[in-house]
Design brief:
The complex is a heterodimer.
Chain A (H helix, E strand, L loop, with lengths): L10 H15 L1 H24 L2 H16 L2 H16 L3 H31 L1 H16 L3 H11 L3 H25 L3 H9 L4 H30 L1 H5 L5 H11 L3 H29 L1
Helix pairs in contact in A: 2-5, 3-4, 4-13, 5-6, 5-8, 5-10, 5-12, 6-8, 7-8, 8-10, 9-10, 10-13, 12-13
Chain B lengths: L3 E10 L3 H9 L4 H8 L2 E11 L4 E6 L5 H8 L7 E6 L2 E2 L5 H11 E4 L11 H5 L1 H6 L3 H14 L15 H13 L5 E5 L7 H18 L2 E6 L2 H7 L2 E6 L2 E6 L1 H6 L4 H11 L6 H4 L7 E2 L4 H11 L3 E5 L5 E6 H10 L14 E3 L4 H11 L3 E4 L5 E5 L1 H9 L2 H14 L1
Parallel strand pairs in B: 3-8, 3-9, 6-7, 7-8, 11-12, 14-15
Antiparallel strand pairs in B: 1-2, 1-4, 4-5, 9-10, 12-13, 15-16
Classes of the chains: A mainly alpha, B alpha/beta.
Bound molecules: adenosine-5'-diphosphate (ADP) and magnesium ion (MG).
């Protein structure tokens, strides 16, 4: 019907061309970043597996007890980790914990300041908000594509995509938390002569804390939900095992690693949930 | 020289406030300005002065521009035009930095819904202003404690504010302002969120405090009875404009607008009301066996300055004032009789309101209501009395507005 004989619009070609140009322009920087992140994550993993696994199990369980003071959770942590060891997934588990923790950390250290910025300045909010909308409607696979040309296969691309994917709720919930501070309280802070910084630190952030805390938890869960996808571009860990199992049609093995991801998710979620709660 | 001076102050809300200024200066009403320019008058052409040590009450219905006015004084809201002076300093021309320093040194503010920081203790709330000024810890604790003592919150400093009653919370709000020892205190409906019993007590306490401290207070209220109670002079506002400025007597005897008239009419109704209909039930009394410590606890818990004391048959014996009980506790005296103030004013159930008012105006204390056998039945505080007189001030206000608008 619409046979108007117009030439096909070569959007894909343009994007390829743009990425190529950009990649060449900043090749030195990106490979430096990639090396840095790769070696960073690798050394964290090395550190985690340096200890005998039973020592790590006890250490993590002790941490669980120290933070939550819940016996049931402590036992769950220990048994869960033991199960993973028993499945022969110990190294993969440590790799996943390292990747998720570091990605979460990066997502939060970028996300919270961006959230604050969006809350305090309408202009930056007008820029940040649509980008977030856009990011959240894209399927996570799409983030993998630009990461690879810049950072190659491996932890860095995995972390890059994970951070992008996991960051939006942290930004949004920080902004919302600050915006929820009642008007009268903001007025009071101003009326007593607070500077903007004092108002932020003494009023807005403390009152936004529950919301920011929820953002952090969401960030962790989203990071974890990326581990299988990230495995497709070379992140190892439990996700890597699942991805391998899919390719080799080994449902049993895939299932074991899947349980592993759930166990790690529960442990990290509870630990962080409690750390944040006990701070206030 | 006046402490605070406001000259030709205008605040117009909207996308292009300046465009409405010529019309506002011509004296067009809020409605007319909105129709012609789409801008909303917050306040228009306001002029007044407040002398050092004076309580100036700004009174008006909801929407009359009171909050806008008070926020222009410390520039929480930027005025569209006009000038504000505090002493010799022109507030309206100050830079951001000068403004912050002015707010820290000279202007305290108390808010309708208290605006306390929920994550801080009473003490640390009271310290807030000193803290942002950079006063060192020992000195700011000292000053904040002093302020807390002034408002009767000694011993409460480590509580979190959410655990306190409304009256107590507003004391914290007041202490936060007083801790800075400001020259001017802005109070935007500071007592409006409190229930009538506490409210009248607070009014009286505030008046006492003011006698001691001699601050300059800009006190906002929508309640005529409160205005009459508190104000040295009253500024009456309507639709963003000042309708009348004068003492309570001047305004009551020579009302310049319909809605003041209405309030005055309501006050007249007091002739037919009786003690029984307006008294409040008593939730807590001191019994004969209660020692000073127990009494003090009860008084604090009730959040008042004194409670009535009754014998085992419920007959009125006197009052126990908080300060007296506290003194005895400190001295270690245990005798219940020592704290009793037998000079208590009481009326019977059928006393009419005129007489009660006369009695209350004379000694400014809550009055006990008793039956023929001297059994305690209830209490009348000034707030309840005046509230009873105007019954539902809010709804009558909106009626008054409507009848005004349709004219
Ligand atoms: N931020 C604002 N934007 C637009 N209009 C406002 C704003 N603040 C107040 N107004 C308007 O200004 C008028 C005065 O409001 P306000 O000062 O809050 O009155 P009051 O405190 O006496 O109840 C009202 O008509 C209100 O709708
Ligand atoms: Mg108001």
């Amino acid at each position: 019907m619409l046979d108007l004989d117009l030439p096909r619009f070569p959007l894909g070609d343009y994007i390829d061309c743009g990425i190529d140009t950009l990649r060449e322009a900043i090749a030195a920087e990106t490979s430096a970043v990639a090396d840095f992140v790769n070696s960073g994550i690798t050394s964290v993993v090395d550190f985690l597996v340096f200890f005998p696994s039973w020592v790590m199990m006890l250490l993590i369980a002790a941490l669980a007890w120290w933070i939550t003071k819940r016996l049931r959770f402590t036992i769950f942590t220990f048994l869960g980790l033991y199960l993973l060891f028993n499945f022969d997934l110990w190294v993969a588990t440590m790799q996943t914990i390292a990747l998720v923790s570091i990605s979460t950390l990066v997502a939060i250290t970028l996300g919270i300041p961006l959230g604050i910025l969006a809350a305090l300045s309408t202009t930056s909010r007008k820029i940040i908000w649509p980008i977030l909308d856009f990011m959240q409607t894209l399927p996570p696979f799409v983030y993998l594509i630009p990461a690879i040309p810049f950072f190659g296969l491996g932890y860095t691309s995995a972390m890059f995509s994970t951070v992008i994917f996991a960051m939006p709720p942290g930004i949004r919930l920080t902004t919302l938390g600050i915006e929820q501070v009642p008007k009268e309280l903001n007025e009071a802070a101003d009326a007593f002569g607070s500077t903007k910084m004092q108002k932020l630190i003494k009023l807005q952030l403390p009152l936004a804390a529950p919301s920011i805390r929820a953002g952090v938890n969401q960030t962790i869960l989203l990071s974890l939900s990326m581990v299988v996808i990230a495995a497709m571009i070379g992140a190892r860990g439990l996700g890597g095992v699942v991805w391998e199992a899919i390719q080799r049609l080994q449902p049993g093995k895939g299932f074991e690693a899947g349980i592993g991801i759930v166990i790690v998710a529960i442990i990290l979620d509870r630990l962080v949930g409690h750390v944040k709660k006990s701070q206030t | 020289m006046p402490m605070l001076r406001v000259e030709n102050l205008n605040k117009i809300f909207g996308t292009n406030p300046k465009s409405a200024l010529p019309l506002v200066e011509k004296g067009l009403s809020r409605e007319q300005v909105r129709e012609q320019t789409g801008q909303t008058i917050g306040i228009a052409n306001v002029n007044f002065e407040v002398q050092r040590g004076e309580i100036l009450v700004v009174m008006g219905l909801s929407g009359s521009g009171k909050s806008t006015l008070v926020r222009c004084v410390n520039r929480l809201i930027e005025p569209t035009s006009g000038k504000i002076y505090i002493g010799d300093d022109e507030v309206t021309s100050m830079s951001r930095k000068q403004l912050i320093s002015l707010r820290r040194r000279k202007l305290g503010m108390v808010f309708q819904h208290f605006a306390l920081l929920p994550h801080r203790t009473v003490l640390s709330n009271a310290e807030y202003g000193l803290e942002v000024m950079g006063v060192d810890q020992t000195q700011r604790t000292e000053k904040a404690m002093e302020a807390l003592k002034l408002v009767g919150l000694k011993g409460w400093e480590n509580q979190y504010t959410s655990q306190l009653s409304g009256g107590m919370q507003q004391r914290v709000g007041l202490a936060r302002a007083l801790a800075l020892d400001p020259e001017i205190i802005l109070m935007d409906e500071a007592l409006s969120a409190l229930d009538p019993l506490i409210r009248t007590d607070m009014q009286n306490e505030l008046i006492d405090l003011q006698r001691k401290l001699e601050k300059t207070i800009l006190f906002i209220t929508h309640d005529l009875t409160e205005a009459v109670n508190m104000g040295d002079r009253i500024v009456l506002m309507k639709d963003g404009k000042v309708v009348q400025i004068g003492t309570a007597e001047e305004i009551l005897t020579n009302p310049a607008s319909r809605y003041v008239e209405r309030f005055v009419e309501e006050l007249e109704k007091s002739k037919v009301l009786r003690a029984e209909t307006i008294m409040r039930p008593i939730h807590e009394v001191i019994h004969g066996g209660d020692g000073p410590r127990a009494a003090l606890h009860k008084i604090k818990k009730a959040g008042v300055s004194a409670l009535f004391s009754v014998d085992s048959h419920g007959k009125l014996k006197g009052t126990v004032p908080a300060d007296k009980a506290a003194q005895l506790v400190e001295k270690g005296v245990k005798d219940p009789k020592a704290m009793l103030d037998t000079n208590v004013k009481s009326v019977t159930l059928d006393t009419n309101l005129r007489d009660i008012m006369t009695l209350m105006v004379e000694n400014r204390q809550p009055v006990a209501v008793v039956d023929d056998e001297n059994t305690l039945k209830g209490v009348i505080v000034i707030g309840a009395l005046l509230a009873a007189v105007s019954e539902h001030p809010e709804s009558q206000e909106s009626e008054a507005v409507e009848s005004e608008n349709t004219k």
